[in-house]
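Agenda item 2: KG4 complex prediction
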Amino acid sequence: MAHQSNLARVNSTFLPSLVLMPLFSKPIAAKRALTEANLSISDINGIAFTRGPGIGCCLAASLNAAKTLAAVHSLPVVGVHHMQAHALTALLTTPTHTPSGEINSSYPIFPYLTLLVSGGHTQIVLAKSLTSFRILATTVDESIGRAFDKVSRKLKIEWAGMSPGSALEKFCLLPEESVYPEGYIPFTSPMPRRLAFSYAAFHSHVDRILESVGGIEKLTTANKLAIARAFQRAAFEHLEKKLDLVLEQCAQQDIKVGHLVIGGGVASNMFLRERLEKCLADTPTGEVIKAVFPPAQFCTDNAAMIGWASMHRFLAGDHDDYSINPRSKWSI
Ligand code: KG4
Ligand code: ZN
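Presented output:
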């Protein structure tokens, strides 16, 4: 499998490298990761960490841990762009060849489009190489992930151990029928002809519905299901409309792409996967474009994608200086 062959290639030349994610600020996690991988720090050749974009204090925690560990053990560091890592994950997780040895048509070839749907971003980006990216569409206000989080909380949907977004997806899968509350107003897709996303209107729309019915406690589970399902559908329709506009623009500018890589936490949503497959089966320009989804656990934030995105630099003998700083705002 290509996924294995990628890993084997990296293993034979560089691995192991240690990856520090912004969420842990204590070396306990690094120790545990090494123990679980049956490695010790002396087996490590370099340390990769998320440099940005993101919340300053979280970035600083992992950057300081990475620099300290690296300095103590005389190791090189590489600071990774979080969204580039999401955009490149599919190159790690998609096999280059089929089990019978043929080239896998799903393996993304540059230039490819990438739809980045996370808690901080909603973007369609043209990935031209491992290091060159062009934003084709971005959000004017909030991200789709944040809209999922807010709507999920407003509807008081909770599932132990799950992000609000994945809890909303799970809730929508309950077997009960949807029943729209009295006076329900349908969602609409903002800025129909503009090549930009807007998700703030989606959760304010839920506020309006809740106000008009007299509060969340007035809703039955069937009512909440109707709203959650309508929101999820409308949020994904908005993505599809912008994707169509991007494909039209690519055709006008003679940019040929064969793959759409989907990344970021919202890409783990199975309903989105199903819808995008259908959408790409019938593109406005008639282009044949394959949707490529990394496995769900590699769509939400994970250390493997940061390690993978750092690898070409380590392999080229390139790395950052210990004076490197975090960048909470950092365009792809
Ligand atoms: O990429 P990610 O793990 O972290 C950021 O870089 O932001 O994305 C997290 C976002 C959260 O808003 C979370 O609620 C959303 O992804 N999310 C989902 C699903 N799983 C995670 N949204 C919709 N459906 C899901 N299954
Ligand atoms: Zn992310």
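Discussion summary: Residues 118-120, 145-146, 148-149, 163-166, 169, 264-266, 268-269, 300-301 surround KG4 (ligand 1) (CB under 6 Å).
Owner for follow-up: CH.
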